[in-house]
Design the sequence.
């Protein structure tokens, strides 16, 4: 029997045994990246909610700001990482899933829109929904264009 074949088989078995541990470490690092990004995004959103506190019938500026900023960043990030080599495999998890996921809030947008309408401010509710959706799409396009600007222009 050729010894190089035996050695190759032994190395393959060692790699197979080591792979689950490596995958587990990668999963832990990904989870830690998401957690760290989520912490930062949550703190920023909470800080803006405090700084731009909304009163009954007023425009929800804090939610609009975080949703638009998160949309812009996420569009830039996903385009950049899809079209260029990422500096680290954890940026997508830290910024995309963690930070942007915690920063943006569709549920609060829904609650605020419904509350505005129920409290007799239907015009503000409709305008808020329209501005949020329209500007959100504009931010998504702008983020993609900005990410591609350095590559194509």
Sequence:
């Amino acid at each position: 029997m050729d010894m190089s074949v035996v050695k190759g088989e032994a190395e393959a078995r060692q790699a197979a045994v080591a792979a689950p541990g490596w995958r587990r470490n990668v999963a832990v690092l990904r989870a830690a990246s998401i957690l760290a990004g989520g912490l930062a995004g949550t703190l920023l959103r909470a800080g803006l909610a405090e700084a731009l506190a909304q009163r009954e019938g007023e425009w929800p500026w804090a939610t609009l700001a975080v949703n638009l900023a998160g949309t812009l960043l996420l569009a830039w990030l996903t385009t950049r990482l899809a079209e260029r080599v990422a500096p680290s495999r954890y940026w997508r998890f830290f910024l995309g899933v963690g930070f942007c996921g915690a920063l943006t809030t569709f549920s609060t947008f829904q609650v605020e829109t419904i509350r505005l309408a129920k409290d007799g401010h239907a015009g503000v509710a409709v305008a808020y929904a329209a501005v949020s959706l329209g500007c959100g799409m504009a931010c998504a396009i702008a983020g993609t264009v900005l990410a591609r600007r350095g590559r194509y222009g």
About this structure: The longest helix spans residues 3-51. The chain has five helices and no strands. The chain has a mean pLDDT of 86. The helical segments are 3-51, 61-83, 91-103, 106-118, 122-152.
